Amino acid sequence: DELIEITGIPSTESINSYIQNVNPALLEDFHGEWRPAISSWIIEMSRLLNVGYILTIDYGYESLEQFAQSRKDGSVRAYQNHSQPNDVYQNIGGQDITADVDFEQISKLGEKEDIQTLCITNQSTFLRHNGFGHFIGQLRNMDLDELEKQANRVGMMELVKSPGLGDFKVMIQEKNTGVTDWKELSSHQDTISDTPLPLLNEHHINLMESRYPHLAWTPDSYQWPF
């Protein structure tokens, strides 16, 4: 009455070709993930894209990062109610199951389909190179009360925080564009200036209030006894 993990022969021969490209010494005592669907995804992207770019943002790793000691048990994990259960095989349908992206695999498969990798950087670097500083300045000069400004600033800074979301990998690939340096793709200053700053609303989590509830206090928050 429960799901368990068993070992056996590979369910498909294509996994052997993937393993053959890995140093056998690195495979010993390691668990890892293999993603057969990425190949068909890259092929489909190449079919749909004649000239242009593919931008992939997620948590993941490159090359030998996969075999770091901290990853010896693999990267498959579950999330439920903002916590990580110990067993991904329990509570099926009631928890999210995820794994890190192998960006090296995406890059190599892309090259076979004439899709070239321009860079693999992190989200912090990518955002700061594309107007993040301007938006922080824009927020500072907006006609908002100080509490609302700080709440939005905390949310924005979370996107470039390290360790945290700022460490998300950002991969930029191109096909038939002639571009060889991803920094050539930086948004034009006029485009950045004309882009309105999205502000927190009722559909967003207010990180400042959840982490620092005392900062959300105002005199009107309390009913005085007199």
List the helices and strands and how they pair.
Elements (H helix, E strand, L loop, with lengths): L13 H6 L4 H4 L9 H12 L3 E7 L1 E2 L15 E3 L16 E3 L2 E2 H10 L3 E7 H6 L3 H9 L5 H13 L10 E7 L13 H6 L12 H5 L15
Parallel strand pairs: 2-5
Antiparallel strand pairs: 1-7, 3-4, 6-7
Helix pairs in contact: 3-4
Could you walk me through the main structural features you see in this protein, from its secondary elements to its overall organization?
The relative contact order is 0.14. Helix content is 31%, strand content 14%. The longest helix has 13 residues, at 146-158. By secondary structure, the chain is α+β, with helices and mostly antiparallel strands.
State Rg.
23 Å
**Amino- and carboxy-terminal Cα gap:** 62 Å
The portion of residues forming beta strands comes to 5-15%
Structural class: alpha+beta
Number of helices: 9
The backbone outline, from C-alpha atoms, is flat
Helix content estimate: 25-40%
What value does the average pLDDT take?
86
Query: Reading side by side through the largest sheet, how are the strands ordered?
Result: 1-7-6
DSSP strand count:
7
Features:
226 residues; alpha+beta; three-stranded antiparallel β-sheet; flat
